[in-house]
């Protein structure tokens, strides 16, 4: 009997030792598995963080361009996404006059501007001592004569009031258009520098009233007719089809007054300038201009 009890005790102790050994082994395996899982999770998290860092978008470089509202700012809006892909944040600053966008460019507040033609730019540089240069010709906006108190050229009476822009180059353009309609005759060779002092013949004794270009549309109720720049006509709700006369496509103006992208001298070949020029002088922009503005804005590229 004592022998049986002793045998049972030995067996129980043996199982207890085996059980303890088994539990210890399992705990070690569990700890090892937990550590492996944690290590793998950390490695995955590190890899994800590294991938996120590698693919995070870089901050875009600001490209600030001054422009008249119509059509210039509208055209620039078409290339904002294209320039973003090139690393630039296109910011368009809208102006309603012809002076501030040039002074802002000269002072370094803008990277470029887009609102003027070459003769105006040349004249502005000469009068103000600025150092601005064109880098691309984009479009031509036919200058038009629009009806105010008088509905047609044929109905103009003696002493009729005709409003024209008061800046040198656009005034000359308006006078050339009046001459083309047989209303006045300019001195020989006056051309693109013509002023009212160059009027040699004025059979209807027209009163030429010089007004700031941006105010010409508003002046229509007070004058018989007005010669208005294409962009200001559009902004004022006029269409070139509404004009009683427009510049011919083969006129001196059509060859001369293409609107240009302008930068400060020394920045003609920068990557920023080139990106802007390439984006604007694209097939997509050309199609947009043709489909949106018809005869009012004509691409020249």
Describe the structure.
- This protein has 301 residues and is an alpha/beta fold.
- The protein has two domains: 61-141 and 257-299, D-Maltodextrin-Binding Protein, domain 2; 144-248, 3-Layer(aba) Sandwich (D-Maltodextrin-Binding Protein, domain 2).
- Helix content is 45%, strand content 22%.
- The protein has helices at 2-55, 69-77, 80-85, 100-106, 118-128, 168-180, 216-219, 230-235, 252-256, 271-280, 283-293, and strands at 61-68, 88-95, 112-117, 132-140, 144-147, 161-165, 185-186, 199-201, 207-211, 225-228, 245-246, 258-264, 298-299.
- The strands form three sheets. Strands 2-1-3-12-4-13 form a six-stranded mixed β-sheet, with helices on both faces.
List the helices and strands and how they pair.
Elements: H1 2-55, E1 61-68, H2 69-77, H3 80-85, E2 88-95, H4 100-106, E3 112-117, H5 118-128, E4 132-140, E5 144-147, E6 161-165, H6 168-180, E7 185-186, E8 199-201, E9 207-211, H7 216-219, E10 225-228, H8 230-235, E11 245-246, H9 252-256, E12 258-264, H10 271-280, H11 283-293, E13 298-299
Parallel strand pairs: 1-2, 1-3, 6-9, 6-10
Antiparallel strand pairs: 3-12, 4-12, 4-13, 5-10, 5-11, 7-8
């Amino acid at each position: 009997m004592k022998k049986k009890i002793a045998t049972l005790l030995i067996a129980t102790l043996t199982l207890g030792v085996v059980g303890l050994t088994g539990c210890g082994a399992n705990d070690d395996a569990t700890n090892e598995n937990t550590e492996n899982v944690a290590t793998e999770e950390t490695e995955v998290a590190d890899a994800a963080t590294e991938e996120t860092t590698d693919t995070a978008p870089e901050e875009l470089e600001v490209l600030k361009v001054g422009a008249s509202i119509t059509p210039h700012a509208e055209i620039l809006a078409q290339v904002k996404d294209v320039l973003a892909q090139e690393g630039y944040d296109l910011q368009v600053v809208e102006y309603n006059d012809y002076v501030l966008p040039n002074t802002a460019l000269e002072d370094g507040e803008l990277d470029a501007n887009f609102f003027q033609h070459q003769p105006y730019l040349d004249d502005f540089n000469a009068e103000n001592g600025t150092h601005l240069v064109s880098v691309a010709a984009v479009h031509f906006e036919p200058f038009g004569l629009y009806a105010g108190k008088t509905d047609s050229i044929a109905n103009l009476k003696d002493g009729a009031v005709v409003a024209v822009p008061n800046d040198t180059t656009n005034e000359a353009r308006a006078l050339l258009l009046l001459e083309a309609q047989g209303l006045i005759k300019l001195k020989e060779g006056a051309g693109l520098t013509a002023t009212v002092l160059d009027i040699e013949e004025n059979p209807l004794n027209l009163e030429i009233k010089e007004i700031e270009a941006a105010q010409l549309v508003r002046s229509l109720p007070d004058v018989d007719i007005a010669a208005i720049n294409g962009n200001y006509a559009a902004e004022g709700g006029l269409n070139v089809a509404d004009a009683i006369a427009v510049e011919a496509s083969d006129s001196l103006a059509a060859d001369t007054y293409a609107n240009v992208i302008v930068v400060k001298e020394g920045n003609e070949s920068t990557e920023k300038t080139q990106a802007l020029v390439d984006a604007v002088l694209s097939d997509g922009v050309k199609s947009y201009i043709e489909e949106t503005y018809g005869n009012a804005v004509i691409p020249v590229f």
